Amino acid sequence: MEFIGKIFALAVAAIFVQNFVLMRFLGLCPYIGVSKKLDSALGMGMAVIFVMTMASSFTWLIQTHLLVPLKLEFLQTIAFILTIASLVQLVEMIIQKTAPALYKALGVFLPLITTNCAVLGVAILNINDELSFIESVFNGFFAGVGFTLVLLLMAGIRERLEKAEIPPSMKGMPIAMIVAGCMALAFLGFSGLKI
Amino acid sequence: MNLFQEFTKGFVKENPVFIMALGLCPTLAVTSSVENAIGMGLAATFVLVFSNMIISLIKNLIPAKIRIPAYIVVIASFVTIVDMVMHAYFPAVHKNLGLFIPLIVVNCIILGRAEAFASKNNLTRSLVDGFGMGFGFTLALVVIGGIREVLGAGQFLGFNVLPETYKPMLVAILAPGAFLVMGLLMGLMNLKKNK
Known about the structure:
The structure holds 2 protein chains of 2 kinds. By secondary structure, chain A is mainly α. Chain A contains 9 helices and no strands.
């Protein structure tokens, strides 16, 4: 029971209170770049959830069973980014061979994920917060869910913004930033939440 | 383009943040005060200059297919150096920037310059480009950080600049303020460009 409570607390923290995009400023490039259409936002979100969960588990294992016993903690940054890059490549190849339909939906987003700072961010945060293996995996998954949630909200708003009357100099990126600011204001309301 | 133009293009004309919208995550995350903005800007400049230097030196040795992983390893090595140096000599700034120092690895400005510039140009031009882009990035961070610190705390670099009667707009140094200030600044840049 205590375990479930802990996982629930992690979920609320990662999705709402400390949302990766709006509160921690991680993964902003895809958040602004891929939020023009609802369906591509969904594809990106799914790909990120998948990679973040995988990356969380792999980097945790590498840190605990490779870097710490060999006293190579200072190589953390290099080791993690290489793990993520090769993981993304591997996932891309596996999906391409086994599930062509899924590859068609996610394919274009996968290479972009290597440079999504949310993935490296969650890997490092798991280590800094001293989470256990199971907690890390869940944290990665929920962080991805939080990312997908705000990405979908943003895409929904931006599809409607297309038809709105906006001053020409605010079109595109600037108005997206303002919308993100309003969403961050709303998410600030969650910060009083304590479990 | 002569060397001086190469150096100054990063300041306004091709500013990595305002014009090219690269490196948004650190830009928004660390600009709650000017001090942090300068710390982040200089750390990124250091990595940018040295990774540009190494990459322009070894560009002919790397096979085209694995060039991106090779660039990432070069960049990650310098990020590790910055991380350790800052931890040793500037512990306060290191603590404030926290997660965002290892995340310089995935800052798209650095990988972008490596791919778009250093891999095609000689050593001198790459160095000059690294300095120019680095200072342009720092400049943008200081501008955003300055606006947020003055509005949100009534201070600039820790000194009170506004009269006592000014009530700080706390929202400016919280997460939403980052998005709003960034959006308005981008809008202003567009307005100026369109005229």
